[in-house]
């Protein structure tokens, strides 16, 4: 089945320094969706980044990640980490089919 391995345990980084959280995955899908979620204290997880195209960098709020197909990785980085970035980060993948689907037809 599919699996994800990411940096475990607390990571200590000085403010203003580079943050890197590693994520590698295994899947039979040739083009999986990849995600990073962030969960701040006492809050629900929120989607931070999603990688949909191999080798194309995605960015949001100073965070960036690139899905690298050849080594099955989606490492998260932030150039200048802040105290407000203290949180739990989750890497995830999905083999959801990419094709769009229409909404259910409604008939009165």
From TrEMBL:
The keyword Signal applies. InterPro entries: Ig-like_dom (IPR007110), Ig-like_dom_sf (IPR036179), Ig-like_fold (IPR013783), Ig_sub (IPR003599), Ig_V-set (IPR013106), TCR_variable_region (IPR051287). Keywords: Adaptive immunity, Immunity, Immunoglobulin domain, Receptor, Signal, T cell receptor. GO terms for biological process: adaptive immune response. Residues 2-108 form the Ig-like domain. This is Ig-like domain-containing protein.
